[in-house]
Every structure is written in C-alpha cells, then in structure tokens.
Design brief:
Elements: E1 2-4, H1 6-16, H2 24-42, E2 52-57, E3 68-73
Parallel strand pairs: 1-2
Antiparallel strand pairs: 2-3
Helix pairs in contact: 1-2
Length: 97
C-alpha cells in the first residue's frame, strides 16, 4: 500500500498545476516527486506484503534532497498460504497404481 499525506498531495498540486498545459506538468511532478524517490528508496530493501509506504513532504529540503520523505510502516504479518487458489491439479482424480 502506498499512502500520500495531505502535505505531499499539496506539494504535487503546487509543482504540477498549470492550467495552460493540462495534465502534463502533473504527470512530470508525480514522476519527479513520487516515482523517482520511491524507486530509489525501495532499491535494496525488502518490503513485506503487509508494508505500507507513506510519502510525506520534507520540511526544508537541502538542495540535493528530494522534497519528500518516505517511511515504511510494517503491518501485521500476512499468514502463509498453502497451495495456489487457482491450482486446478487438486481437482484432478488421482490414478490408481
């Protein structure tokens, strides 16, 4: 799950809104402010299925820092399942030997 705080959403609006250009600046802002920092953040990390990634606006970013901060909130462990739900081999009859 990926969540954006209200402050992160406001940053996207500030940096991605241009009535004369339509949605193109917003798409670039999402890529620059959310997608690129998120990709850098998760490289080399292992996220569990219960993880929630929270993206927030950074207070007073330094020149080379992205204007967002990314945090991981670990949820309760997801129980392991045995077999796949779409496994059709379980319904096939077993041949007698």
């Amino acid at each position: 799950v990926i969540e954006l705080t209200q402050e992160a959403r406001e940053l996207l609006v500030e940096q991605g809104y241009d009535p004369s250009m339509g949605a193109r600046p917003l798409r670039r802002a999402i890529q620059r402010l959310i997608e690129d920092p998120l990709a850098d953040f998760i490289l080399g990390r292992e996220l569990s299925a219960s993880s929630t990634v929270v993206i927030d606006r950074r207070d007073n970013p330094v020149d080379d820092e992205p204007p967002v901060v990314i945090k991981i909130i670990e949820g309760p462990p997801v129980p392991a399942t045995v077999g796949a739900p779409d496994d059709e081999s379980a319904d096939e009859p077993v041949a007698d030997e």
